């Protein structure tokens, strides 16, 4: 799923850039070269970002496992993270918050949410992506990474 989402995002961003710079292209070869170079560079940047993120996650995971799974410190971090995440979730617009919670807390698929709320599945997907982006901005990448590492074994928190 991540690959599809990233491929779609890269494609969309590239075409937005192409559209914004459309006046500078005087031939199809120039457009072709622009698309090739832009997509290639975006892919390299994405891979570099993933590698760096994986390295940080490994470091964090190593630190957390050294402290022991049931440590007081870990539980305090969990409590603070959940509290902060919920505070930011509550700041989301009502419909976006509802879609986010149905998706991540209740585990519903976009089609199920769309049927439940009588909206299009693409609207659900767009709202989920927007919610995650807003939460990433609000929480910062590092805090979100920590949350994702700490919360998988605690489905009762969401």
Low-pLDDT runs of 5+ residues are none
Strand content: under 5%
**Distance between the amino and carboxyl termini:** 22 Å
The overall average pLDDT, rounded, is 81
Say how many strands there are. 0
- Round the Cα radius of gyration to an integer and report it: 20 Å
Shape: flat
SSE order, as H and E? Answer: HHHHHHH
Number of helices: 7
Helix content: over 70%
List strands and helices in order, with pairings:
Layout: H1 2-20, H2 28-67, H3 72-89, H4 94-104, H5 110-117, H6 121-139, H7 141-150
Task: Describe the fold and architecture.
The protein contains seven helices and no strands. Helix 1 packs antiparallel against helix 2 (28-67). It is an all-alpha fold and 158 residues long. The longest helix is centred in the first third of the chain and has 40 residues, at 28-67. It is flat. The two termini are 22 Å apart. It has helices at 2-20, 28-67, 72-89, 94-104, 110-117, 121-139, 141-150.
Supply the key terms.
mainly alpha, 0% strand, 158 residues, single chain, 7 helices
Short characterization:
The protein is mainly alpha-helical. The protein is built from seven helices and no strands. α1 packs antiparallel against α2 (28-67) and α6 (121-139) crosses α7 (141-150).
């Amino acid at each position: 799923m991540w690959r599809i989402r990233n491929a779609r995002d890269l494609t969309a961003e590239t075409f937005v850039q192409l559209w914004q710079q459309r006046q500078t292209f005087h031939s199809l070869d120039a457009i072709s070269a622009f698309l090739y170079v832009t997509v290639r560079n975006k892919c390299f940047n994405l891979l570099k970002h993933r590698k760096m993120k994986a390295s940080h996650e490994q470091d964090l995971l190593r630190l957390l496992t050294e402290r022991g799974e049931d440590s007081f410190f870990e539980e305090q971090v969990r409590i603070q993270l959940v509290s902060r995440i919920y505070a930011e979730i509550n700041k989301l617009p009502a419909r976006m918050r509802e879609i986010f919670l149905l998706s991540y807390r209740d585990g519903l698929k976009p089609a199920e949410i769309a049927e439940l709320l009588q909206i299009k599945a693409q609207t659900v997907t767009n709202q989920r992506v927007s919610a995650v982006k807003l939460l990433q901005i609000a929480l910062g990448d590092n805090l979100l990474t920590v949350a994702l590492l700490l919360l998988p074994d605690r489905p009762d928190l969401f």
